[in-house]
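Worked example (supplementary).
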Amino acid sequence: VASLGRRRKQILPFHPNGDGTFTIGLALEDREFLGDLPRQMKALIESDDEASTRRLFPPAYHREADGEREEEYRRYMREEILISKTAAMEMIREKVDGETLTTEEMMAWMSAINDIRLVLGTQLDVYEGFDIEDLDADDPRLPGMAAYGWLSGLLELIVARLSGADADDPFADRVAPGEAAFTEGFEDGDLDLEDL
Amino acid sequence: MLNVPSAAPAEIVESDTETVVINDRPWKVIVWNDPINLMSYVTLVIQQLFGYPKAKAEKLMLDVHTKGRAIVNSAPREQAELDVFRLHEKGLWATMEQDE
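After joint prediction of all chains, the assembly is encoded as:
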């Protein structure tokens, strides 16, 4: 992973404007990539790919004795959760080519990006302390992992902005938006969530 | 397939108890550790959903990270279920259980 040294001088994405809005500031190719993910997520959810999407709909009642309540929860709440997640995902599609995001819009982006990470992380079987550098150069999971790392950097940045933290330094050792690890992983073609 | 946390304690069913009692003990809202959700994200979500100060949210997040789970709220069933729902909306791995 390349150092962020050359990037520090630039203005990072989601720069706060001081009036509750944030300048998106993503490169064109990053916007194209991000903007296509809502469509892929929708297709995955509609295809009932339980293996990929189970982390989006966890159980509420984990005890066996509460099985009936869990059934009821799924019956009524799964749809509500889906509506809420779809609305957040739509916000990416709607604003991905724009200039700025309001705080509320950026919170929707935050949820949606996290949902994409949940699906990708599940598909790629991400474990605690995972490091992309552990993968061999010809590992088929590399493009997915690169995207996962990029989305993680993006999310970390959004969380920092929404927490009001200074976002200059905390990312020095992470894969950040637009970094080499992302684009290099994509030389062989675009990520396809349905294909992982 | 339900994604049941493996660390969850098994439910002990006392079959010899025939009396039906109205059980109004509070429900614990639990957030479980998972390898995907970022520490900073979990902290912010707990802070926003429960209105906790950052230090408290951070402590709960660290409990999740190091101990595998943390109780983020204790409430009557309807409220606890709403909490779990809002945590699910945000992608956290949350479940609920009643005090024994």
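Two points are worth noting when inspecting this output. The helical segments of chain A are 28-46, 50-53, 67-95, 103-123, 142-162, 180-185. The two ends of chain A are 23 Å apart (CA to CA).
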